[in-house]
Amino acid sequence: MTPLSQPKNGKLDWPVAKAFAREVVMQMKTMKQSGGNRGDVDKIIKGAQEKTAAPKESDVELHFSDYRAEKGISLPHVIAKTVNGQPFEEWVVGNFKLNPPELSSQKFEKGK
User: Fold this and answer.
1) Three-class SS of residue 91?
2) pTM for this structure?
């Protein structure tokens, strides 16, 4: 079964399918240029399957810190993201705009 086969749950993983198809096309072009034979097709498909395996699951956590009061509301000014327990990203928020006057309910109406 390839990433392009219809899965049992009926949902195709499009990013994996696109990566698989891209890999097969690249390999087929290489085979054509090098004068490969039809027996190489199985090798190409197997290699593409290995390179485009579904990504492994990861534990992603967001850590909020440096809480400070903004208009009487305690808000985090540092947000750190870890992936599998390792630091990945950190955002530092300089200030917040709470209920700014330019943000009206009209901006949320359908068709605006």
Assistant:
1) strand
2) 0.47
Identify the residue whose tokens are 């749950």: 9
Q: How far apart are the first and last CA of the chain?
A: 47
CA distance 78 to 82: 13
Tell me the three state secondary structure of residue 98: coil
Instruction: For residue range 45-96, list pLDDT tens digits in order.
Output: 666 666 666 667 889 999 999 999 988 999 999 999 999 999 999 999 998 8
Residues 6+ apart with CB under 8 A from 99: none
Helix (H) or strand (E) holding 41: helix 40-51
Name the helix (H) or strand (E) containing 26. helix 14-34
Query: What's at 68, amino acid-wise?
Result: R
Average pLDDT, the chain: 77
Q: Rounded to a whole number, what is the largest CA-CA distance in the chain?
A: 73
